[in-house]
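Worked example 3 (structure in, sequence out).
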């Protein structure tokens, strides 16, 4: 198990293995393998995943919520993280599990109280995320922890794109190939510099920590057997199947 850099053109990608972690000056081991022969794990094991609620106006509206005056933040535990191709386990405690396709920001430097104009210095890159949510439990509880925290409820991947302008990317979520969410990241109410500054004013961020930037309209239920994909322009597509817990 190791980190690596994906290189090469479409259909001919290979992975150059990195020695140790990918932050700062990267050391390569010299080992290379075709991407097709490698099993991708979640691209990061974050100390925490900070998620933003109601950061697209049309999504706030579809669930009957007002757009909050300040970013609404909550946590997903590191134990909820899975990678591309791993299964989302439908929990026995819920009868309504929704997908939420989101752009994820990966932090690259230890930081806190980052000013908006320095946020770019602490970002390692971007990946696709699915903020899987037990909607019935979210409605029942006064806060989001139970609904957002089941094991497998935070698919991330397939990899991290380190060289990308995230300000206006197409985001598409499909279920069994049918488009359910289609939006652009330019529709974010609070943009990425504002979000990283806001979150880092509350808590220290550690390399590998992930910030989910919120989901656009179109969220809906998943059933056991469904295949859900979150695709973001310039990054790639994150695909996960839903399986029964037992
Ligand atoms: Mg969300």
């Amino acid at each position: 198990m190791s980190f690596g850099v994906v290189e090469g053109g479409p259909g001919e990608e290979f992975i150059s293995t990195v020695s140790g972690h990918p932050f700062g000056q990267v050391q390569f081991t010299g080992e290379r393998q075709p991407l097709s022969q490698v099993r991708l794990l979640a691209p990061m094991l974050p100390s925490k995943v900070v998620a933003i609620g109601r950061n697209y106006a049309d999504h706030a509206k579809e669930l009957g919520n007002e757009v909050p005056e300040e970013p609404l933040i909550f946590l997903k535990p590191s134990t909820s993280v899975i990678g591309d191709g791993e299964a989302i386990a439908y929990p026995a405690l819920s009868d309504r599990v929704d997908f939420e396709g989101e752009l994820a920001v990966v932090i690259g430097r230890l930081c806190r109280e980052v000013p908006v104009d320095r946020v770019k210095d602490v970002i390692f890159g971007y990946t696709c995320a699915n903020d899987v949510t037990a909607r019935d439990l979210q409605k029942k509880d006064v806060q989001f922890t139970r609904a957002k925290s089941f094991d497998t409820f935070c698919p991330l991947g397939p990899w991290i794109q380190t060289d990308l302008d995230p300000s206006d990317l197409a985001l598409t979520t499909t279920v069994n190939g049918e488009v359910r969410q289609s939006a652009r990241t330019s529709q974010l109410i609070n943009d990425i510099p504002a979000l990283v500054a806001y979150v880092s004013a509350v808590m220290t961020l550690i390399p590998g920590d992930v910030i989910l930037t919120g989901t656009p309209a179109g969220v809906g239920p998943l059933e056991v057997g469904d295949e859900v994909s979150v695709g973001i322009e310039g990054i790639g597509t994150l695909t996960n199947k839903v399986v029964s817990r037992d």
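Notes: Residues 107 and 123 are 5 Å apart (CA to CA). The chain has four helices and 18 strands.
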